[in-house]
Design a protein that fits this description.
four-stranded antiparallel sheet; alpha+beta; 17 helices; 649 residues; single chain; 12% strand
């Protein structure tokens, strides 16, 4: 028999997806930075921009000019979108002068800066905290070369280092190498690569006799090659080797080299950064996880199909005269047919609201991953992933309201106003509260991670003007629709539940049931955490889409199996069990995140740790909502169908 009520939800999903497709077209027409190649003519200025300073120790981004670096005459902030603000990016102009195909060496960036003792100590502290500079040319981020200078090893480059004797050296000279591509199909040159080799050097200078304005020039820099890391004396700013008075001079070299890399492929080296030694491991682990998940799913499906088929045949078989004479006693899941659809006795309102919000978050995640896998959301479109996730979540408010209302009505609930309000405000309020606390911590640390007031207003406006009205609209149609017809009636009095075996206890089923979904995603979770906390690009969304589908199948199967065993034990309280068994994988996600922090990261200090805990909490709660919702919807379909297929007297 077909489960009635499905077409309504399907139509809602199709409408939401159609709206998202239209929005994607509008967004594509409005903002796609880096999507159009820019040609630079010979000698044309190539702007070099600076982004926020980042640290894997403090996780607190800083403005580039918070440190005593050379500044342009007027600091100008580049145009940024909402996603860039939320990610803590702050792109500004710089005093570096780059001209297409014009090589320069030994260029003094600005007059030497005399550091105060406080500035020297602060600079030394930032070096210890592993702060990294991030430069941008033609929307390409600067990257540092590996030791063998074969591939890019990291995004950006450190501001300094700690010498073996404990002294602090600062990288005050930059060897800038721009790779450019030329082709007869266009005029000019295109930037296809941007690398920076930082050098520490104790510079000397004097007035340039050829300069009418009394400009300075470096006296210990070979004009033919510029400074080289191998023969440069270090520039100490703190420690035993530093001088009492530190005069810090910044300089740079610029080199342009021809490249065969085409403009469309210039991001490839960034997306594969540092992965040459991990590619085989990544592919092997993804393949292994997929095979295990598919194998287990097939086995579980086969077992469940044979067991259910046997049960239904036995229940529907006409009893023989001998069996009637023996008054055959039935057992198993059929006995609870008058109670199996009895509303949950514990927090039915919360269950309905969580189902709606879980559906909203699930659709948001899968649509965002699909758009990313298709290439609409990529690193060249800075902030686009965050913007897409927020807008998609707001548009899917209709799904949250509709699903919550349908489930609340299924439970014969009358609190439609409270259901609607909780669906619209509970989860966004929780997320907003956690983010507000973390934003306050970032604000106190003078970090660019602190979201500007205007961006906060924009996010709240999106939520209030789009998500909330759509949630109310979805709830209206959900409550207006007829109650889902059930295959069996609910008895007046609940059936007595027999004693349950220990292995069907809620704690044990959650402990065991949460392992399999987590095992499906933990490898990909490692790469995602690495990209978030160690400044790497994550762009294997095709793998992520596959893992997401395997996760959904695994959550559905594991919830169905445990609920089936529970019903066979004549325990009809399956509603929360279907949610909590796959949802328990969120506990493993939180524990693995803690393990990752302890073994892979160097986070130090109260504020950075609070930021890590806050983001882990948000991720774990969202994962709980997604996996729990998938488990419940699959189990409800399963229960509805098996009781619809069996004959009930």
């Amino acid at each position: 028999a077909r489960l009635r009520g499905e077409p309504g939800l399907m139509r809602c999903c199709l409408v939401a997806l159609a709206a998202l497709a239209g929005l994607a077209g509008v967004a594509d027409a409005i903002y796609l930075p880096g999507a159009v190649a820019e040609q630079f003519q010979q000698g044309a200025e190539v702007p070099l921009m600076v982004n926020s300073l980042t640290s894997t120790v403090t996780q607190m981004s800083l403005r580039n000019y918070d440190l005593p670096f050379c500044r342009p005459a007027t600091i100008t902030d580049a145009a940024e979108n909402l996603g860039m603000h939320l990610q803590g990016e702050l792109i500004q102009n710089s005093p570096y002068r780059l001209n297409m195909n014009v090589n320069r060496t030994c260029q003094l960036l600005c007059d030497p800066i005399t550091l105060t003792e406080a500035q020297a100590d602060d600079l030394s502290l930032k070096v210890e905290q592993l702060y990294t500079q991030h430069w941008i040319v033609d929307n390409l981020p600067a990257a540092a070369l590996s030791i063998d200078k074969v591939e890019y090893s990291q995004l950006g480059f450190p501001i300094g280092a700690i010498a073996p004797d404990g002294s602090t050296v600062i990288y005050n000279h930059a060897r800038i190498v721009l790779s450019v591509h030329q082709d007869p199909s266009f005029e000019g040159f295109r930037v296809v690569g941007f690398e920076v080799e930082p050098v520490t050097v104790a510079q000397t200078w004097e007035k340039d006799p050829t300069s009418e304005e009394g400009e300075l020039k470096l006296t210990n820099c070979p004009l033919e090659t510029g400074y080289l890391a191998s023969d440069a004396a270090p520039m100490y700013v703190a420690g035993p080797m530093s001088r009492k008075k530190v005069d810090l001079a910044f300089s740079y070299d610029t080199f342009f080299v021809q490249s065969d890399v085409r403009w469309a492929s210039r991001w490839d080296i960034y997306l594969s950064m540092g992965s040459s030694s991990m590619d085989s491991v990544h592919w092997f682990n993804i393949l292994t996880s997929s095979i295990i998940a598919v194998f287990l799913t097939s086995m579980v499906g086969l077992i469940m199909w044979r067991a259910i088929h046997r049960d239904i045949s036995r229940y529907n078989r006409v009893a023989t005269d001998e069996e009637k004479a023996e008054d055959r006693e039935e057992s198993g899941w059929k006995l609870v047919h008058t109670d199996v659809f009895r509303p949950p006795s514990t927090a039915p309102l919360a269950f309905a609201v969580m189902t709606g919000v879980g559906a909203q978050v699930s659709f948001m995640a899968i649509v965002t991953i699909i758009f990313s896998a298709l290439g609409f959301l990529n690193p060249a479109n800075r902030g686009s992933l965050v913007i897409a996730a927020i807008v998609i979540f707001c548009l899917l408010g209709f799904v949250a309201g509709y699903a919550s209302a349908r489930n609340h009505k299924l439970f014969d609930g009358k609190l439609w106003q409270r259901t609607t309000l909780l669906s619209a405000f509970a989860f966004p309020g929780f997320v907003g509260g956690v983010l507000l606390v973390m934003n306050s911590i970032s604000w106190a640390g003078n970090s660019t991670n602190a979201v500007p007031f205007g961006s906060l207003v924009a996010v709240i406006a999106l939520w209030l003007c789009i998500s909330v009205p759509l949630t109310f609209l979805g709830a209206y149609y959900g409550f207006k629709a007829e109650k889902l017809p059930l295959p069996t009636r609910v008895g007046t009095y609940p059936r007595v539940i027999p004693a349950q075996p220990w292995f069907l206890s809620p704690a044990f089923t959650m402990l065991v049931g949460g392992i399999l979904p987590f095992g499906t995603i933990f490898i990909e979770l490692f790469f995602i955490l690495t990209s978030i906390w160690l400044d790497r690009y994550y762009y294997v969304f095709g793998f992520l889409l596959l893992v997401a589908l395997l996760l959904a199948i695994t959550c559905a199967e594991i919830a169905i199996v445990f609920v089936y065993f529970q019903l066979c034990a004549e325990d009809y309280r399956w509603w929360w069990r279907s949610w909590l068994v796959p949802g328990a994988s969120a506990i493993y996600v939180a524990l693995y995140s803690a393990f990752y922090c302890a073994t892979r990261l160097q986070i130090a200090g109260f504020a950075p740790m609070m930021l890590y805990i806050g983001y882990t909490l948000l991720a774990s709660v969202s994962f709980f909502l997604v996996t729990g919702c998938i488990g419940y919807l699959a189990t409800f379909t399963f229960v509805w169908r098996i009781y619809d297929a069996v004959k009930v007297d």
